[in-house]
Amino acid sequence: MDLSTNIAGVQLSTCLMNASGARCVSQDELERLGGSLAGAIVTKSMTPQSRAGNPEPRYVGFEGGSINSMGLPNLGYAAYAKMIPGLRQFGKPIVASIAGFQMDDFVEIAKAINEVKPDLLEVNLSCPNIPGKPQIGYDVEASERLLNKIRNVVSIPMGVKLPPYFDPAHHEMLAGVLDRVKVSFITVINSVGNALVIDPDKESVVIKPKGGFGGLGGRIIKPVALANVRAFWKLLGDHIPIIGTGGVETGRDVFEHVLCGASAVQIGTALVEEDISVFERLERELKQWLQQRGYSSIMACRGKLKEL
Ligand code: SIN
């Protein structure tokens, strides 16, 4: 069974990888991903300086999903720039995720990270968890300006991690930006931002930052993730590969993302909950699922969702 895929000219032996944020902050975590069955190593979104992130509790798993407001805890881009060459020992692509609080942050990080040549750059325009900082991906003009600036300072393939959109008009506007900027890939979706999970027994929110508001992940968001993968696939076709993420708990969920148009799939909540053995289980389940349906590769079913 062929689970290999290609994102912007970068070959992955398997289409499964971690989502930025899930078990990928420290060198130890990144090396564990390197030693796992993940097809690539994705870093935590890095910022100019190291960050402790938001106050705890800031992640809670619940039946059906998770809510988080991590606040971009990370070691700062200089630390990841040092680490990236060493991560090559694992022989799999490295995806550097970058974030920032103003345009210059992104440009500064992109320039420095480009020097150490990860395989792909994933520009995070969709973190919902920084108090007072809206998700850039919801401002179409600002996104285009920012992506153009970053594009000018990098030579490696540049992709963008987008928030979920809920209206076809927004998918169309974004697709226009992605085409004009000529991004090399997209990752959809980041968590469903500013949701509220509460504990009615305690009559309380469950996470501390932002009065309990945070990004939803896990099974509960799969339909939103699939809708975004599908909408962008229909608008972009296969000239901008899509990495699907959101609600992947089983091999069947991976298949659903691929059927909607994803060329690869990232795992967030399930990786946090289950640890890196999740890649072995998902690979086994995906292979079984594809075999039962007579497919010999993921590329054979990519985008093939039927409409009624
Ligand atoms: C966080 O660190 O708050 C999550 C990152 C993200 O959603 O982009």
List the helices and strands and how they pair.
Blueprint lengths: L4 E3 L2 E3 L3 E3 L8 H8 L6 E2 L16 E4 L2 E4 L8 H11 L6 E5 L4 H13 L4 E5 L15 H12 L6 E5 L5 H14 L3 E4 L3 E5 L1 E2 L4 E2 L7 E5 L4 H15 L5 E4 L5 H10 L3 E4 L1 H6 L2 H16 L16
Parallel strand pairs: 3-16, 4-7, 7-8, 8-9, 9-10, 10-15, 15-16
Antiparallel strand pairs: 1-2, 5-6, 6-14, 11-14, 12-13
Helix pairs in contact: 2-3, 4-5, 5-6, 6-7, 7-9
Bound molecules: succinic acid (SIN).
Strand order of the largest sheet: 3-16-15-10-9-8-7-4
Terminus-to-terminus distance = 29 Å
Number of separate strands:
16
Number of helices: 9
Approximately how much beta-strand content do the residues carry? 15-25%
Radius of gyration: 18 Å
**Largest sheet descriptor:** 8 strands, parallel
Q: Report the mean per-residue pLDDT as an integer.
A: 98
Q: Which secondary-structure class do the elements indicate?
A: alpha/beta
Stretches with pLDDT under 50, minimum 5 residues: none
Q: What are the bound molecules?
A: succinic acid
Overall body shape: globular
Q: Strand-and-helix sequence, N→C? A: EEEHEEEHEHEHEHEEEEEHEHEHH
Helix content: 25-40%
Summarize the structure.
This protein is α/β, with parallel strands linked by helices. It is 34% helix and 19% strand.
List keywords for this structure.
308 residues, alpha/beta, 4-stranded antiparallel sheet, 9 helices, 19% strand, binds succinic acid
Overview of the structural elements:
The strands form four sheets. This protein has an eight-stranded parallel β-sheet with strand order 3-16-15-10-9-8-7-4. Strands 5-6-14-11 form a four-stranded antiparallel β-sheet, with no helix packed on it. It is of the alpha/beta class and 308 residues long. It is 34% helix and 19% strand. The longest helix is centred in the C-terminal third of the chain and has 16 residues, at 277-292. Succinic acid binds next to loops.
